[in-house]
């Protein structure tokens, strides 16, 4: 591989910073002066034909690029700071991103895989997690909790592969989701009631559908006296908790397996810590089996899972729980989960190439279903579709079906404080949609 003038200068500058134990945050002026000196030295030697490189045509641009690489995040700097950028991808030396309108855009600034790897490791410094050949798979919450970083390095991948998802929404609330037409006013009232009485809620959808946003908004409706324990592989849920805590897994290199703390370990621990509500982000492993114990613990459960519909999400939970290897019959798993979860919300996001408008990509609740306890069978779950949206932008319509009696009774207990009932909300919902 040809070593460019930039690569050579960056190596000299980063080496000097390391040798002099300088802090890029505290010693910015000193490092900037060092960059100026090194570029001047490089120009002088190149003009004297010392070394393998020609003199720089625009040395001031080299100084700026070096400063951005050493003091900021190199070619990632602008996209990391741009609030209109939601996701950033790296494949080798190629950097591209998705903006709020769903457009896939390439970053034109030249970069090498080595430099980008350096910037990725810089992002990971604050997390305590390392990327190397012993640990080539890393997930972490970075940028002071404002983004989630997933990295696959060599030798697992042929080249550096990175996905960084920024949390572009903060202080999510149900009213905000109503404003985005993700849910309706009536559904927001039902979600608030569900949170106040501890119903079991499963949120499903594909990546980027808005599951975490929905969870954050819903958690703000939980009573402040409730003890809420949040378990995630990498922390993404950010809603404030008055009584409770957040937990995330810990990865360890292959030669230290005893240091690994899995999501299943955390869920199992939390069941003994008297939660009123336990929240599990992205159920996709053996932790699904621990959900069965949650039913016996008597606490409320809120979880997210990948799925393309409410019924498919529940079936995926059953399959995942069975794969935990505890030799529990499928019908028992299905029956138990049907008693844990009362409501399922399916969210989706539209594809940029299929949308019929020029605005931001829409993320909406497409289906709400109830899970009547005890009505599951060997063929899977029985779910009642309560609200359905035919397509993006279409109204979220009531199917005419009612909530299971026990669920409706609990919801009405909470809604009575506002002089509302489930039937009243659903009727108002239907009338408004019909009027439109």
Task: Describe what you observe in this structure.
With 436 residues, the protein is α/β, with parallel strands linked by helices. It folds into 3 domains: 1-71; 76-167, Beta-Lactamase; 174-435, P-loop containing nucleotide triphosphate hydrolases (Rossmann fold, 3-Layer(aba) Sandwich), CATH 3.40.50.300. The protein has helices at residues 5-19, 28-47, 59-71, 77-81, 113-124, 174-179, 185-197, 211-219, 263-270, 287-297, 310-322, 330-340, 405-415, 422-435; strands at residues 85-91, 94-99, 104-106, 137-142, 147-152, 161-166, 201-204, 228-232, 244-248, 277-280, 300-305, 343-349, 363-370, 384-389, 396-398. It is elongated.
Q: What value does the Rg take, in angstroms?
A: 26 Å
- Let me know the CATH homologous superfamily of the largest domain: P-loop containing nucleotide triphosphate hydrolases
Beta-strand level of the residues, as a percent range?
15-25%
Through-space gap between termini? 63 Å
- How is the main sheet built? 9 strands, mixed
CATH class (first level) name of the largest domain: Alpha Beta
CATH fold name of the largest domain, please?
Answer: Rossmann fold
Name the strands of the widest sheet in spatial order: 9-8-10-11-7-12-13-14-15
Order of helices and strands: HHHHEEEHEEEHHEHEEHEHEHHEEEEHH
Query: Structural class, from helix and strand content?
Result: alpha/beta
Low-pLDDT stretches: none
Number of strands: 15
